[in-house]
Specification:
single chain; alpha+beta; four-stranded antiparallel sheet
Length: about 300
């Protein structure tokens, strides 16, 4: 039986790529003068705690810390391009994360929930159907609106030249991990031949989150508007944990034809958040991956 390869992840940043291992993270960035700048840091003990091994709890814990790590690395990459040295940490980091999360929850959860509620209340007198049936259709409409907002938002920001470069580095990150998992030599030319899609991508997580939210919130039945909105906020960690476990399960069962069929929508959505990278971008991604592996002691 072949040896099981380590599970690595990553993230595109401004003119660079971050790679995350079990104990360390590394980011490689192309500076304005064309040089590749490396930064490595150990992951907090949280990643090796029992919380990250407990099903459902690990999803919430890892996702929150991944958000804070990603925000710090994004700031680092932005500072490299502008020449600034401002750090994002402590209260400033939590404030930035809080504002970002509040905006995301309001746009992608509360707004669709409010519109779904209005649709639900219109259905009852318009078609003389029971409230429980109307609530189910209201949740379906909420999910459709949430997905439409997500795709529309990604499509809109994807028209910006700067974001298109970030999406290309996202593609470089996927190709590098796919090449490693395909046991290919990590050269830009070799890596370029691998797929832009990867089953553990955060984009896949977002689509899964939307689908699971429709099922989960439908089980709550008819709710007053205030309670409906509150449930979308309070139950978000539960839905996120379920989505995380599903992504983790599918990534561990890719040999199954059924699983490969199930993840097709997730892989299709990744086409919105990835672009074909140049060989120079792949060079940066490989540098980040090798630096991370070196810090891991591999």
């Amino acid at each position: 039986m072949p040896e099981r390869l380590p599970t690595y992840g990553g993230q595109a940043v401004i003119e660079g790529v971050m790679m995350r291992g079990s104990n360390n993270a590394a980011v490689a960035m192309r500076s304005p003068d064309g040089q590749i700048v490396l930064h490595t840091e150990p992951l907090p003990p949280l990643y090796r705690s029992r919380a990250t091994k407990t099903p459902f709890l690990r999803g919430v814990v890892v996702l929150w810390d991944a958000l804070s790590l990603g925000m710090r690395i994004l700031t680092l990459s932005a500072n490299l391009q502008t020449g600034e040295e401002e750090k994002l940490e402590g209260s400033k980091l939590f404030l930035t994360l809080g504002i970002s999360l509040a905006f995301g929850i309001a746009l992608f959860f509360l707004l669709p929930a409010g519109l779904g509620f209005a649709f639900e209340k219109w259905l009852v007198p318009a078609f003389r159907i029971p409230e429980t049936t109307a609530a189910w259709w209201g949740n379906v409409m909420e999910g459709i609106l949430r997905l439409a907002l997500l795709i529309g938002y990604i499509g809109l920001i994807g028209r910006m030249a700067e974001i298109q470069r970030v999406f290309a580095y996202h593609g470089a990150e996927h190709k590098t991990i796919n090449a490693f998992e395909g046991q290919a030599e990590l050269t830009p030319e070799n890596v370029s031949r691998f797929s832009l899609e990867h089953p553990r991508c955060g984009t896949s997580f977002l689509l899964t989150l939307v689908v699971i939210s429709v099922i989960f919130f439908s089980l709550l039945g008819p709710l007053p508007l205030g309670l409906r909105l509150l449930s979308r906020v309070l139950m978000l960690p539960v839905v996120a944990a379920l989505a995380y476990e599903y992504i983790r399960w599918t990534a561990n069962h890719l040999s199954s034809p059924i699983v490969r069929w199930l993840i097709k929508p997730n892989l299709a959505l990744q086409r919105l958040t990835t672009r074909e990278p140049s060989l120079e971008m792949l060079e940066v991604s490989i540098a980040a991956f090798n630096a991370m592996r070196e810090k891991e002691g591999v």
